[in-house]
Amino acid sequence: MTRWGEPFRESGTLASASVVDQAQIAIVVIDRFSLLRYWNPFARELFGFVDGRDYVGLSLLDIGIHESDREHASQLARRVLRGEPWEGTFAVLKGDSTWIHVRAQAVPMHDGNGEIDGITLIAREALRSGRVEEQYGLLERIGSRLANSLGFDSTVKGVAGILVPQFADHCFIDLYDHERLIRRVSVHAEGWTPPERTWYGVGDEVRYPERHFVTQALRRQETVVSGDHLLDGVYGGRADTVSRQVGVTSAIAAPLRARGEVLGVLTLSLSGLSPRQKSTYGGFDRDLVGAIASRVALAIDNARLFEEERATALVFQKSLLPSGFPPLDGLTIAHDYLPAGPLSAHGYGVQTQVGGDFYDAIPLSAGRVGLVIGDVEGRGPHAAAVMGQLRAALRAFAQADREPADILRELDEWVRQLGKPDDDGGGTWIPSVSCLYMVYDAWSRELSYANAGHAPPLLVTSDSVEALELEVTDRMLGVRARGGAGEDIVYHQANLTLPIGATLVMYTDGLVERHLPGVAPDTADALARLVEGVTEVADKDVRQIAEAALDSVPGDADDDTALLVVRTHSDELALREGWFRSEASTVGEARHLAASTFKEWGMDRDQAELACLLVSEIVTNVVIHATPHPVHRAFTGGGVLDSEVPFDTGGGEFDEDWTDLLEEVASSDAVEDPAEKEFLLRLRRGACAVWVEVFDHDLRLPRIRSAAADDEGGRGLYLVEQLAARWGSRPTPDGKAVWFEMPMYGGEDEDGAEELG
Length: 757
Prior knowledge:
Blueprint: H1 16-22, E1 26-31, E2 36-39, H2 41-47, H3 70-81, E3 86-93, E4 99-110, E5 116-125, H4 132-147, H5 152-163, E6 170-177, E7 180-188, H6 213-220, E8 224-226, H7 236-246, E9 250-258, E10 261-270, H8 283-319, E11 331-338, E12 343-345, E13 349-351, E14 355-363, E15 369-379, H9 381-399, H10 404-417, E16 420-421, E17 428-429, E18 433-441, E19 446-452, E20 458-460, E21 465-467, H11 479-483, E22 494-497, E23 503-507, H12 523-536, H13 542-552, E24 561-568, E25 574-581, H14 585-600, H15 605-626, E26 633-636, E27 639-642, E28 645-646, H16 662-667, E29 678-685, E30 689-696, H17 716-723, E31 726-732, E32 735-743, H18 748-754
Antiparallel strand pairs: 1-2, 1-5, 3-4, 4-5, 6-7, 6-10, 8-9, 9-10, 11-24, 12-13, 14-15, 15-18, 16-17, 18-19, 19-22, 20-21, 20-23, 23-24, 25-29, 26-27, 27-28, 29-30, 30-32, 31-32
């Protein structure tokens, strides 16, 4: 044996590799490119390297460094490669999915020429030794983590994840909900959980005894170290037993106070769950936890304020969008809206971003539906306000049965009126708006559309998923003002027929402009991913397609996203139509077609009689205005006689009074063109309602007259308005269409039918 202090004289000197292998500290060597070249056995244990996996050549980041610390680690490498040593703490996710915090020192390695060709990293688990410098490192880490946290849940859980198990074996965060103290976090080392009905759990109301150290901390508004190591729970005796079994040795309670208000209390405890050199807290630990609690309280308060602000903004945003749609015949619809992620605004912290993306499905005349998807340029309250006004205007124009191209022309003028002064240039800022408006007729599967610069929807069929081919696409709304006041923009429209059972996926660009941190958006790749994701669920329901579309493109969303998925079907749809001469004798024929059709469709008898009455009213209106010669009418006890020919009343079941048309008959002009002497009666059946349309070649739209008490006419359209669920008229390319809607069933079903409107 060699005496203490004398040189080692035995023949076999210890090899440096043997010393490194036996060292109870992690040693890792990386090259100039931060790629792993060597690690000792303790490093494998510390970082939790997975057996059988070859880590040689992998990046330093691949040993499990937390995402929030990756930039920190990159800076470490750059600094050391410049020849400067580095020391600090970072979080590591081990191979067994447990978290640890590592205290590391890094120094440059030199080759034979003195050039730096790598880095030696020496590390150990932080805080288990109770070293003061490590505890200060913990405070720095918590401050850094909280500075990057905005969500309430992520804030409180992130704090517990840092403190356990490096500084404590148990961490509790109790927060006030009005006067009640509610446990929001309960985290324990080594994956241990307390038995049921012992310690308080998350969501429980916490009530501490009067002399409990937590009560003292809240009353005194100061951090308290407890020698009374028993932790109380719902059932006192059981809680004491569990505390003794787990070996609780010391505890600290620190009030969470921010902006003069006590939010709750942070409690930490040591026990026998994990090995450590110290088993009790001291005065320095009390001061450290007090400093931690002040940072945690401020972060919790900021998170609450941010979530309240964000919730308010999202309520405002979603109140401008439809919360749901009534049942629409021939269509099944799913819709979604995702706000943009929080945005860092220079000098103003992190801001909640509302946006201008919108969608809609608008019930139109005769069961047709208007489908809308659009995006207002920019973000913020003004974009959302423009969107809300734009959507309201579009709905008004659409429900007046305007053509798609006409609606976009009106909206273009509307957008330019919604501009605001430009603070930078002194002019007026006019937002650009993309908008695709389509009118779908479920009975013919015809889609009439106009497009102001919006991306085409995806067309999903049984064979493929691809972009819908749009024949016309015009410039975005609002751009005329940018191009010059005198520039004229023409919006066109076109028609196409959808395949049977087709599905349309309508979306805004926020869906395909997502990107991973530090990577520029790739719209083409995102669109390919979207098509792939939708293809996998093409045969599923629309809700699943919507969810797949939203999940198909990974990354952060810097813009909000609107999504409308529409599947077409022909369930419960039926159509019957017929052309008739514009003569008085054909009114009965038209009514007979309606009566037989309504009976075949299973319409309630009373509803069918009312509908036939209204058919007579609007058909007679067409005949009176389109007949080449005036109709002479006589009113007898046997019914109404037109041109000396008795009118077929269907067995006396319908006895309408047509005196309101006498004045129009007297003033009507003869029609010379034979083609204009015909009208089309079209009947449509949906799930709960029927629609009646009458098409003629007269360009004049009907209007309700205000008939006096002694007038013989002027009440026909008033009768239609009172008895029909809805009615209206719209111009057509060669005339007009007058229509009304009638529920198929009376009673309770009538209420359901009214919801279709």
